[in-house]
From TrEMBL:
Gene3D superfamilies: 3.40.630.30. Residues 45-188 form the N-acetyltransferase domain. This is N-acetyltransferase domain-containing protein. GO terms for molecular function: acyltransferase activity, transferring groups other than amino-acyl groups. Coiled coil: none annotated. It comes from Paraburkholderia solisilvae.
Length: 194
């Protein structure tokens, strides 16, 4: 790990994509308007707003990681995408980070959710995944009121999601041949989590 991290774990230097983030002072732009942190351009889109080349890049990144890299044959295009919001992070014209949020009740009745959290392998371990999830949770916190968020986390990331206030629920289970654990986040990020 290189570079100093701030309280969100962001790296202040060392990786070219993030080199000026710590001093940029830039905030998240309103949804649907792209925002930049150093050379990463972040954008939220509904499915209908997602340009076809961005959709293709998202499916390509998702499949290359969740199907090929993790060696799991499963249906990535699962029919939920038209109901989701999609967060893309581009650097130098390449999609390097992606996630989607699921509206209330789509993952499970009574919960919001998000998933397909992915960072391109060439850009990992420099803080982009933490920024991606921070942005996902900022968005969900704006719209969810008191409705909790439930996710099915790969077990190796349990501590990562704990650092965002998620609490594990039950025992690990196998999903698509990979160990997962259900995690829930309640009312607020830094305070008590119900
Ligand atoms: C998970 C993933 C998005 C993290 O992206 P990233 O840009 O490398 O993440 P960051 O650099 O912001 O690191 C954030 C934290 O993630 C966790 N993490 C990342 N890679 C990890 C690994 N291989 N093992 C355990 N924890 C890991 C750590 O808690 C890390 O914090 P630290 O650097 O302080 O230890 C990325 O590794 C990825 O795309 N993995 C494949 C897809 C996947 O498994 N997605 C999750 C589905 S639930």
């Amino acid at each position: 790990m290189s570079g100093a991290r701030d309280d969100l774990g962001r790296v202040s230097a060392a990786h070219p994509v993030l080199a000026s983030r710590a001093t940029s002072g830039q905030q998240t732009a309103p949804h649907d308007e792209p925002s930049r942190t150093s050379s990463v351009t972040w954008a939220w889109s509904s499915f209908a707003q997602l340009p076809v080349d961005h959709l293709y890049a998202a499916l390509n990144l998702r499949e290359s990681i969740f199907v090929v890299e993790q060696d799991v044959p499963y249906l990535d295009a699962d029919g939920r995408d038209p109901h989701c919001r999609h967060l893309t992070g581009f650097a130098d014209g390449q999609l390097i980070a992606y996630s989607r949020t699921l509206p209330k009740d789509l993952f499970e009745p009574g919960f919001f959710s998000f998933g397909r959290v992915v960072v391109h392998p060439a850009h990992r371990r420099v803080g982009i995944g933490r920024e991606l999830v921070t942005r996902v949770l900022d968005h969900l916190d704006e719209i969810r009121g008191n409705t909790p968020i439930k996710i099915s986390s790969q077990l190796y990331l349990e501590n990562f999601y704990r650092s965002f206030g998620f609490v594990s629920n039950g025992e690990p289970y196998i999903e698509d041949r990979i160990l997962h654990i259900e995690m829930v986040r309640g009312l607020c990020r830094q305070g008590a989590v119900s």
